[in-house]
Amino acid sequence: MNSLRTKLPYLFLLPGVTLVVAFNFVPFINTLIISFKNSKLILPGETWTGFHNYQVILTNIRFWHSLFITLSFTIVSICLEAILGLCLGLMMNLLSPGKNILRICILIPWTIPTVVTAKTWQWMFDYNLGIINYLLEVLGIIRINWLGNSFLAFFSLVVVDVWKTAPFVAIIVLAGISAIPQEIYKAAIVDGTNVWQRFRFITLPLILPILGVAIIFRAIDALRIFDLVYVLTGGGPGGSTETLSVYAYKLFFYKGDFGQGAATSSIILLLVAGFGYFYTKKSFRG
Questions:
Q1: What does pTM read for this prediction?
Q2: What range defines the domain where residue 84 resides?
Q3: Distance CA 229, CA 223 (A)
Q4: Which of 178, 190, 243, 273 could form a disulfide with 70 if both were Cys (CB 3.0 to 4.6 A apart)?
């Protein structure tokens, strides 16, 4: 009887573990195996080539350009999302009477599917018919080719991502602030501290761990971002917004080189896993 009680929790976990293995682990192993093969759409059969695909990818300047775009996008967007999310979280905490309504309104961008968000912003950024250029003309400013210029396309991509995902960070920050005992603030007020001192020495240090959790989730998403980039810019113009995931997709379905596409996907996985490991180890050590 005791043995059954000990094993019963594992039996309840079995369906979930089975689904994870079937839909995550098995495809990963299959992708990893393909990355060591010369697998192409136009060639029959597959031959084992070892690390040849990785050698080709790592010596391709387009791969390093996509890696640079991915890292640049991740760093810029995460920094902006952390700052904006922190400000929004503090604002929602101060507006106690309307906190719930404001929370719902702020979360709307996060709940919209990414493809819908990207397509909507693509229409808004349109050179001829977009509402952004229309408003600029109303203000007497010339039209701007938002998605046709390399720098502006990257800037537009960051803006859309921050608009969509900063609310996620804000809600997590708000949850962290709400968990801080009010007695700490009351004691600080008695000691004569001002608003900035309470934020600097109480609020910020106590919410940094939970802010770190939000950052790691967002960084993992940013490192493997695909749908927003593919719909909004397609990786253009001239590859200026081509992230690693978009590059891997093009290797798979444009070039038909499954081996190199699988190798690139494996590198993305290693990049994300490595970041998650080192960030977690550094942030939550001890």
A1: 0.86
A2: 60-254
A3: 12
A4: 243
Per-residue confidence at 92, pLDDT binned at 50, 70, 90? confident
Whether 234 maps to a domain, the answer reads: yes
pLDDT at 281 over 80: no
Residue type, 211: L
Q: Is residue 86 domain-resident?
A: yes
Cα distances (angstroms) measured from residue 56 to each of 128, 165, 170: 41, 35, 42
Asked if 209 and 216 count as a contact pair (C-beta separation under 8 A), the reply is no
> What average pLDDT does the segment 199-211 reach?
86
Q: Is residue 37 part of a domain?
A: no
Q: Is residue 271 domain-resident?
A: no
| Domain CATH for 213 | 1.10.3720.10
Q: Per the structure, how many domains does the chain have?
A: 1
CB atoms closer than 10 angstroms to residue 76: 17
Distance in angstroms (rounded) separating the CA atoms of residues 115 and 123: 12
Query: pLDDT grade, residue 124 (50/70/90)?
Result: very high
C-alpha 73 chain-centroid distance: 10
Cα(247)–Cα(249) distance, integer angstroms: 5
Per the CB < 8 A criterion, the answer to whether 125 and 237 are in contact is: no
pLDDT at residue 277, as a whole number: 80
What whole-number percentage of the chain has pLDDT above 70? Answer: 94
